[in-house]
Amino acid sequence: DTEVTQTPKHLVMGMTNKKSLKCEQHMGHRAMYWYKQKAKKPPELMFVYSYEKLSINESVPSRFSPECPNSSLLNLHLHALQPEDSALYLCASSQGRGNNSPLHFGNGTRLTVT
Amino acid sequence: SQQGEEDPQALSIQEGENATMNCSYKTSINNLQWYRQNSGRGLVHLILIRSNEREKHSGRLRVTLDTSKKSSSLLITASRAADTASYFCATVLNTGFQKLVFGTGTRLLVSP
């Protein structure tokens, strides 16, 4: 089990649906991340929040909308997705701004867009 | 792209043998990290080596870093079936934020 909890574990949604992915950590970490991983590929960075502020957006399409309500929670709101957005979405956290703190990952949400 | 390249892409060995995975990257880094991922699960951090370090050990893991060649290697000694997983190197750029970029990964299969 990991210390980063992601819900739901699996999600199937149509292209017109609106859904949200949730991530929670209680390690006191101040940086949180969303990664997208396609099958047999490495994770690709989407967003980084540092101290609840969006620090990095890797040119992600606006149909993905991140939100960090507080230091423990990270959401990813999904709207009008495409089938090619089907992937494993991974949340991670780390201690803070420093470059030398490892990332702690959740087990991901397996998203299928139909 | 900063993304690292790993080789081999896949490695199949017997229990008890050593497994070596290599990672090459393109630009200067702050540190390099290795992660493991079991199928369909999240990644687990294994080891971090800073740019001014050349070698690091953790249990059965040995990591080397050669910044002049922009390369790193991960050695798993006396492998076990439970080591079967994908292994990724990840580089951290010299920025103020933890921007971790993953390599292409090596799929390791350890047979009993």
Number of helices of chain B: 0
Q: The biggest beta sheet of chain A, please?
A: 7 strands, mixed
- The overall pLDDT of chain B, averaged over residues, is 92
Q: How many β-strands of chain A, per DSSP? A: 11
Number of DSSP E strands of chain B: 11
What profile does the largest beta sheet of chain B have?
6 strands, mixed
Low-pLDDT windows of residues of chain A? none
The quaternary state of the protein chains shown equals heterodimer
CA radius of gyration of chain B is 13 Å
Order of helices and strands of chain B: EEEEEEEEEEE
Question: How would you sum up this structure in a few lines?
Answer:
The complex is a heterodimer of chains A (114) and B (112). Chain A is an all-beta fold and 114 residues long.
Can you give keywords for this protein?
heterodimer, A: 114 residues, 4-stranded antiparallel sheet, 11 strands, B: 112 residues, mainly beta, 5-stranded antiparallel sheet
Walkthrough of the structure:
The complex is a heterodimer of chains A (about 110) and B (about 110). Chain A has about 110 residues and is mainly beta. Chain A has no helices and eleven strands. Chain A has strands at about 5, 10-15, 20-25, 30-35, 45-50, 55, 65-70, 75-80, 85-95, 105, 110-114. In chain A, strands 2, 4, 5, 6, 9, 10 and 11 form a seven-stranded mixed beta sheet that branches. A four-stranded antiparallel beta sheet of chain A has the order 1-3-8-7, with no helix packed on it. In chain A, a hairpin with a 6-residue loop joins strand 4 and strand 5 (about 45-50). In chain B, the strands form two sheets. In chain B, strands 2, 4, 5, 9, 10 and 11 form a six-stranded mixed beta sheet that branches. A five-stranded antiparallel beta sheet of chain B has the order 1-3-8-7-6, with no helix packed on it. The model of chain B has no long low-confidence stretch (mean pLDDT about 90). The interface of A and B includes residues 4, 88 and 90 of A.
